[in-house]
Each structure stands twice: as C-alpha cells, then as structure tokens.
Write a structure and sequence with these properties.
GO terms for molecular function: carbohydrate binding; hydrolase activity, hydrolyzing O-glycosyl compounds. This protein is mainly β and 500 residues long. 5% of the residues lie in helices and 39% in strands. The protein has two domains: 91 residues, Immunoglobulin-like, CATH 2.60.40.2140; 326 residues, Jelly Rolls, CATH 2.60.120.
C-alpha cells in the first residue's frame, strides 16, 4: 500500500500505526454494537490523552486505503458513559452482512490507525434496542408518485445545520454533484477577468475560451496556455498593447479586472487560463466536500480547488470574507525554499485563508507530504466544514483539523476586517454561504516564496513578489519554465458536496 509521508517516522503496531520510534500507545479494542431496529454503535474506552476518535465504515465493501466511509464522523469528546463512540441509526445491516471499518485516533501529540477491520452481524453479535424520546419536531416525509401511479414515502428529512442557497437542507443528503459527462454551464460559470492583488495577483487572465476549459471522457480539463500562442498577441503587443475582456465578470465591477494597457514595466498577463465557479447556481454553509482530481505539474503553476464567499458579507478587499482551500500545491517538480524546506508538488496544503498579506496568509494552512508528486495520480481531496471546525482529508485520510477562533487571531495581528467578524461564532468569517471554485493559476505575488530554487539545476525563482516588475521578469524567463509544463492541466473526475 502506498502511504503518506508525514514529518515523523512511521512504525507499524499490532493495534495501529504510530509515529515515533517508541511504542507509546495502542488503540483499545473497538466494540461494535448492532442496534435494533437498525444502525450500530462503535466505541473505544475513554483512555486518558485521547483527543479525537474518527470512525469510517461501509457495509459489505472493503476499504482500499483511507477512503471516506459511508458512515463516518470525527468524535471530539467522549459520550456520557465515558467511551469515545460513533453511533448511527441510518445503517440498515442485515444478518451475515459485514461492516468494514477503519479507525483514526489522536492521542496526546501522536496519530494512530486501525486498518482493514471488519465485523459480521449475526445472531451471536451484540445488539442493543434503541429508544428515542424527543421534544423536537418530527422529521418531515414527502410523498412521491412513481411511474405506475403508486404513492411512496420518501426518506425522512432529518434537520441539519447545512444550508443550500439560503434554504435548510437534510442531514446526509448529497446537495451537489457533477461527474462531468458534459460541461454544464447552468452549474458552472466561467470567470472572465484579470485577477488583482485581493488574492494572489496571479500572472494570468481568466477567459471563457473552450481551449482553456472543456470536458473530455468524463473529466473536466482546465489548461493554462501562453497568450502569445494567440496570433493577435505578438511579443510587441504583450509589451505595448491592450487587452480588453468582453463579458468581464469582475465581482466589484472594477475596470482594472476587465482591461489592461501595457506600458513600461507593465505587460499584458502572459498566460491565459480558466476558473469556473458555482456562484450563480450553488452555494452552501457547512457540509462535506469531495473533489477527485489529478493536479497539474509544471513550474510556477498551482491548482485552485476553493470555497469562496458568496456575498462577501464581511467585505471583499484583502480576503475580508475569507477563503477555504480544499487542496493547494505548488506544481513544480522540485522547489526548495530559502530555508531548505521542500515546498513543491509533493506537499499538499489546505485550510483557511484570512488575508492576502504575505506574512499572515499561511497561518491557517495545514500541510501533508507525499512521497510522489500529487500530479502523478488522481486523489480525492476533502474538506469537512462544521460550525466548530474545519477538517482536511486526502483519499479519506484526515491530516488536519482547524478549531481556532479566527477573530482572536485577526485582532491580535491587526487585520482590519477582523473587527467585522462575529465574536459569538468561532468560525466567523466562515459562517456564511460559500460557492465552489475550480481553476489553474500561474505565478503571482503570494504563493511562491522568494529566493526559492526550482528543478534539479536549482534555478532561482525569476521574480520577487514585492517587485513592480514581477510579471515582466516572470515572462522574460518563459523559455526556462515553459519547458517544464509537461502536464499543466487540472483534471477533475467529480465534485460532490454533502450536507452534515
């Protein structure tokens, strides 16, 4: 099994996987109780030091790696009986069916797993009869008429904190899906604009050209191309001409996102790319996102698998309303930062972005390393957004959880927008509806660290993020970086979003 590389040494234990050279802890035996009339409870004893118990299960279907389970949750505190327990009444398990599961436990500052576990339900298996008393409203059921005219009762709608397009949703329901059999422009809008420094000021124009975003073979492709490949844009015109984007979709009606006049050190954006979003069709608050994708490879490219604020409730400038990264890599084959840290396509990042300011931009981004480049294969990138936390996953493996109060951090670091965030909600500014965004960026003034070295020849990054001629110096170096664009496209298999 291919495994993820994390900063500590992996040691396989009889009852799990731990980091470190000394066995510090073993996951206690998992007790499975099958409930009547349906469902199950999985639990472990309340051993001191446990901080999180994550459980993932499927019925009659084995796990290949650490995929997301059909029945899954992160348990952050023990139940009333002192055990760490996952319980569901949604699973209808018949006798002789097998519950396949895996478990992840955080104990003190270390991580442990139990993999390839299973429990068969039979007459001898432990069962518990469940009774529920509630004073809340009874879940609504709806009646449907099938093709033969018979009326059936649909699955009850269990209330959830998830909202979709401003309306309440139902717990566990899939609220968005696209498997890209076609490019559905009712779901997705192609952005048409030149990005400003409100995010990264990447060195591209986002356009609606079919050669930059298209669907083939059940996959969405987003491909960056050079502007000078267009016969209308010669070398001279890139340095002295003008780019006017017809149908510009600037979110603030800013003319500088819709046209640029080249002069002196200012050139036209040298790369054309695409960025698609669901702003006009689908936006939600709280839920679980899954994106299966193959990321791009090539110097100074980065994929954009994002959640962006629908109404910019707390403001637009300097990312005042926040941004959530489902997955982010710097797609260079090899890239070493000035301090010797490897920051290329072997390092996955995800999490929350609160500002475009360079020193603070990465404060809530978490990292996971892989021994292969993330562009070498498809991976499933996940983000679980709850009212009190944001969890990040890859191929079902949870590599980080954010539980910080963002306002406290913002005020302490003199972020003007933090004064607007809701002090009564620990997730603010991530307490409003966000939409999906998929794209490919190139260059920019925020993502690639200055003085970094790329490739086996350790060539220096050709621009400085604070230089007024950054885009010009980047373009001057095109004969070097363009040769590395062997697989520059983002390739998306599917996008799914589920209510909590």
């Amino acid at each position: 099994m291919r495994h993820l590389l994390l900063p500590l040494v992996i040691v396989f234990l009889s009852a799990g996987i731990s980091y470190g050279k000394i066995k510090q802890f073993s996951i206690p035996d998992v007790e499975i109780e099958f409930l009547k009339p349906r469902g199950f409870r999985a639990s472990i004893p309340g051993v001191p030091g446990i901080k999180l118990f994550a459980f993932h299960a499927r019925i009659n279907k084995k796990f290949e790696q650490f995929e997301e389970g059909d029945f899954a949750d992160d348990i952050t505190e023990p139940s009333e009986d002192g055990r760490w327990a996952f319980q569901t009444t949604k699973a209808n398990i018949a006798n002789d069916q097998i519950l396949h599961y895996w478990v992840y436990v955080q104990h003190e500052d270390r991580s442990y797993w139990l993999t390839n576990q299973k429990q068969r339900k039979n007459a001898a298996a432990k069962t518990t009869t469940t009774t529920t008393t509630t004073t809340t409203a009874k879940p609504k059921t709806t009646k449907k008429t099938n093709e033969k005219g018979k009326t059936t009762t649909a699955e009850p709608c269990v209330p959830t904190v998830t909202t979709v397009n401003g309306k309440a949703s139902c717990s566990g329901r899939m609220i968005f899906e696209d498997t890209f059999q076609t490019l559905d422009l009712q779901k997705w809008q192609r952005e048409i604009r030149i990005p400003l420094d409100t995010e990264s000021a990447e060195f591209v124009s986002y356009q609606d050209s079919p050669e930059n975003s298209f669907v083939v073979g059940g996959h969405l492709f987003i491909v960056p191309t050079l502007l000078n490949m267009n016969p209308d844009f010669s070398e001279e015109r890139i340095r002295t001409g003008e780019l006017v984007l017809s149908g510009c979709s600037s979110p603030t009606n800013n003319e500088y996102e819709c046209r640029r006049k080249a002069a002196l050190s200012t050139i036209l954006p040298p790369v054309v790319s695409a960025k698609l979003n669901t702003k006009h069709s689908f936006h939600f608050r709280y839920g679980r996102v899954e994106i299966r994708a193959k990321l791009p490879k090539g110097d100074w490219i980065f994929p954009q698998l994002l959640l962006q604020p629908n109404d910019n409730y707390y403001g637009y400038a300097d990312l005042a309303s926040g941004m959530l990264l489902v997955a982010h890599v710097l797609s260079n084959e090899q890239l070493i930062a000035q301090d010797g840290t490897r920051v290329d396509g072997h390092r996955l990042r995800g999490g929350a972005v609160l500002t475009a300011k360079a020193q603070l931009r990465n404060a809530f981004l978490k990292t996971n390393m892989l021994d292969e480049h993330f562009s070498d294969n498809f991976h499933t990138y996940g983000l679980v957004w709850k009212p009190d936390s944001i969890a990040l996953t890859v191929d079902g493996f949870q590599y980080a959880t954010l539980r910080d109060q963002f306002k406290t951090y913002g005020v302490a670091n003199n972020l003007t927008q933090a004064n607007l965030w809701n002090a009564d909600n620990v997730m603010s500014p991530f307490d409003q509806e966000f939409y999906l965004s998929l794209g490919v960026g190139v260059g920019g003034i925020a993502d690639f660290p200055d003085c970094s070295l790329t490739g086996s020849l350790k060539q220096p990054k050709p621009w400085n993020n604070t230089s007024p001629k950054a885009e010009y110096f980047f373009y001057q170096n095109r004969n070097v970086w363009y040769r590395t664009w062997t697989d520059p496209e983002l390739k998306v298999d599917y996008v799914r979003v589920y209510a909590l």
